[in-house]
Amino acid sequence: MRKSSYILKKILSWCILIFAIYALYQTFQVYKQRDYINFVRAERNVYTSTFTRDPDVTADSYASYKIESPVYNDAMFYTKVNVKPNTPYKVTCKVKTKGIEAENGSHGGGAQIAIEGTTERSKIVSGTQKDWQEITFYFDSKTREEVNIGFRLGGYDCLCKGTAWFSDLKMEEGTPDTGSVWNMACFIFYQTDVTINQKRYQFQIDEEEAKLMKSDMERFKNTCAQYSQGKMSVRYQIIPIETPITSISYDEENAYYVNPTDVENLIQPYIEKNQYDHIFAVVKLGDLTKHSEIPVNDWIGLGGMEYQNIGFSNIRLPNDKNSYMYRYDTGVNQFPEEVFLHEFLHTLEKNATDNGYQVPALHDHAKYGYQSELYISLANWYRDYMQKRISDNGTYIGLDPKVYTIKPVKENDFLYGKTVTLAKEPNNMLEEIQNLYHNVVQVLTSLFHADEEKI
């Protein structure tokens, strides 16, 4: 009797031990699904999306970072990274997606790499992508010493739903290109075909108008070299796009215009093949012969925008194809490249202020005594602006020559890239235990703080 009782106790002890081991194993598996290393979860609408680590869907040997949004939301994993000021950085990852769609058909949302709290982002992956897609995000630290690198399902001003997996996360520090040659693309969008408020607008750029744009780009190139006194130069590529623009953006300040997201699918193949420093988008939004135009708030060019860290400018053709706005004529217009120069200078103005340089506002010409002149408009203002020869109470102000060397981050900046650690994944049991201990400490020290942030 005693022997059988002893055996039963042994069996019970072993059962309890096996159950305890199994329970610990399952608990550890759940922990690993919720082990975000040093990443923080953040959402626009908190507790809407699900964040997990997925060991079954991965592009490397570590579990992927998975975001599921059953309803429209903006959600991301992000981590704080220390960076050196005025330094180029590159972040890459591989992405898989399932059923990703943006609210209201917006072009700005999807799976992407971004800097939390800014509009800086990589290209977007949406829909269902069964194969891994590699995406790359370039950025300049500018005056920053730390940034929050995010792997996002959504967008800065856009909500999305669906599922995204992020895997093989990497980051590199590069060496800036301090050359003064700017490589530019001038996209001529020959056709506009959009519907606004149930009204269809169709316009086409003819060859004569395209020829004027090509001529003005050559004049713009020469003017940049002349006005900067050789401190910068331009090389450019004219790229005709026959596929119609079918989407157009709106804001209260400008009314309708072409945002980079409106033409992203048309220009992205060229961006991936070439390392551009600036983009011009030549568009037509009206035509007097049809007595029709898309509403705009009296703008001919729009600058200061960015597409994947590259300056992006609109150049709008006038409604009247016989206009002298872009046509050189000694008795009418000796400065037809003005719009190209003006919009490019908005990019240099932004680069200067973002990097801590003091520069007069480009639109403040009257404040410093400059007026539009017959035949040459504001040519003298632009020349002195680029040569830092604007008189201001006994000192000279304008663009610092160093601004001509502050160009977008490109792949060539990483020929000798240095690896930056985003998240140190545990590689063995000891590291797993150390990581678990670290996370327990983190939880205990943040008991009175939310474990999830709001974007």
**Tally of contiguous helical segments:** 6
How confident is the prediction overall: mean pLDDT? Answer: 89
Into which percentage range does the β-strand content fall?
25-35%
Task: Characterize the biggest β-sheet.
Answer: 6 strands, antiparallel
User: What is the rounded distance between the termini?
Assistant: 67 Å
Shape: elongated
Q: Can you write the helix and strand succession as a string? A: HEEEEEEEEEEEEHEEEHEEEEEHHEEEHE
CATH class of the largest domain: Alpha Beta
Question: What multimeric state do the chains show?
Answer: single chain
The CATH architecture category of the largest domain equals 3-Layer(aba) Sandwich
> According to CATH, what is the topology of the largest domain?
Collagenase (Catalytic Domain)
Number of strands: 24
Number of domains in the coordinates?
Answer: 2
User: Low-confidence spans: pLDDT under 50, at least 5 residues?
Assistant: 22-33, 436-450
Alpha carbon gyration radius: 28 Å
Would you mind describing this structure in some detail?
- The protein is an alpha+beta fold.
- The strands form seven sheets. Strands 2, 3, 5, 7, 9 and 23 form a six-stranded antiparallel sheet that branches.
- The chain has two domains: 40-176 and 411-454, Jelly Rolls (Sandwich), CATH 2.60.120; 181-405, Collagenase (Catalytic Domain) (3-Layer(aba) Sandwich), CATH 3.40.390.
- The protein is 24% helix and 35% strand.
- It starts with a helix and ends with a strand.
